[in-house]
Amino acid sequence: MSADKKYALITGATSGIGYELALLFAKNQYNLVIVSRDQQQLETRAKEFRQHGANVISIAKDLFIKDEAFALCQEVRNQGIEVEVLVNDAGQGVYGLFKDTEIERELDIVNLNIASVIILTKFFLRDMISRNSGKILNVASIASKTPGPWQSVYHGTKAFVLSFSESIREEVKEYEITVTALMPGVTDTDFFNKADMTESKAVQDESSMADPADVAKDGYDALMSGKDKVISGFKNKVQIGMSNILPDTVVAHNMNEMQKPVDKD
């Protein structure tokens, strides 16, 4: 295993889009720092990624907790790892009417989807600027472009991720650094189980869900070509194109109809 290859740090790397991204980086001659909460899952994935010749460092951190995001940064620095690519993939949602959902769970989601992204991006971006080299991929969502009844906090956090990514990209344009936002739609991952969203109309038709490997490939290719953002999937491009020309109130109503529980018809 080569120790001089570039490192990609990927959060949420044990499942879904994060796993598929880590696999792509391993196959394309990157070493990996993979991060999730579950050390056992991390070790299982690390063994798999090492089969592609990657040196893999697994770090278990709970990024719902801000202090653990800071601790992750320090641990990477202490190990002398130079992160060439940062992938902020870890994210979660919660399903339900805002009046009914749990505030502490929502604040945890804000910490994961926003605070940890800010912390990791600031830390590793400064290193990238000092050496004038690096790439950042932030996993946003098509949810970033629409109001989201039944997922109001999640949509709000992803709107932040997209705006934040585009802002930072402009700030660092004089450097050899790119920032890319990946915007998937409904994808066949464990996201909906974790969000208690399996009764939503939006996820009832599993055949319409995107393959996370396809989404990851779209994100990887966009990152490597230096694009500012990519909407994954033709259907999602059409949906966002329509939402851009419709009034927000109409888009919010349409999303409400799409995302409400099947028993609400």
From TrEMBL:
It comes from the Bacteria. It comes from Dyadobacter sediminis. Keywords: Oxidoreductase. The keyword Oxidoreductase applies. SUPFAM superfamilies: NAD(P)-binding Rossmann-fold domains. One of its GO terms (cellular component) is membrane. GO terms for molecular function: oxidoreductase activity. Belongs to the short-chain dehydrogenases/reductases (SDR) family. This is SDR family oxidoreductase. PANTHER family: DEHYDROGENASE/REDUCTASE SDR FAMILY MEMBER 7B, SHORT-CHAIN DEHYDROGENASE-RELATED. It holds the Pfam family adh_short.
